[in-house]
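Long-time lurker. I teach an intro course on protein structure, and each term I like to show students one example going from raw sequence to a predicted 3D structure in token notation. This year I'd like something fresh instead of my usual example. Would anyone be willing to generate the tokens for the chain below so I can use it in lecture? Attribution to the forum is fine with me.
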Amino acid sequence: MNATFGEAGFPGRLIAVEGIDGSGKSTQVRLLRKWLERQGARVYLSEWNSSEIVKSATKRGKESNLLTPTTFSLIHATDFADRYERHLVPLLKAGYLVLCDRYVFTAFARDVVRGCPLSWVRKIYGFAHLPDLTFFFRTSLEVSLRRILDGRQKLKYFEAGMDLRLSNDIYESYRIFQGRLLEQYLAMSGEFGFRVIDANRPVEVQQSEVRKIVVDQFDLENYRMPGLSL
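-- Reply from a regular --
Happy to contribute to a lecture. Here you go:
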């Protein structure tokens, strides 16, 4: 069976997951990857801010608190462009199911909340094709906060938006910052056709829904490893 081509003209398919910190999106996309691998599919997972070209620079900038909103935006755009050019596009051309733990929508939300003009941010990422499917894991602020603190003792400076000086209390700053991000995601949901998942539910319930949506939208037979039948 020949693979059908998506809007970007690639035989592969791009699936992105989005959500505020603590929404469980990373857990869900990793579970999806493992499940697709068990089905014999060609699959690759790319994570936000993982390019080796800028990883060390980002770490140094955060540790020294030297990053302005514009610098933050440009570093993340450089990270994304490197991964897009060297990993995402070649694998989409090779017929892979490419999973992205956060995509351009993360920049659209975070950079704007940090004060960058929306039109400017979107222009920077204008080279990137939209995903074939984008999951948005919607969760309440209290659930997301509890999940983060269940995994570690304290919040991180930037995930709480402390650089914006929203509040001297890190937990209140988190609620304000992540609440603003949530508003941005909800505003984008209709525009970009997000598949909204109720992320307040148990992990296995969400994953079952995610798998069903993927199977309903894509013929997995088109993405099988050579010699394997799904």
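Some talking points for your students: The longest helix spans residues 69-93. Residues 1-6 have pLDDT under 50 and may be disordered.
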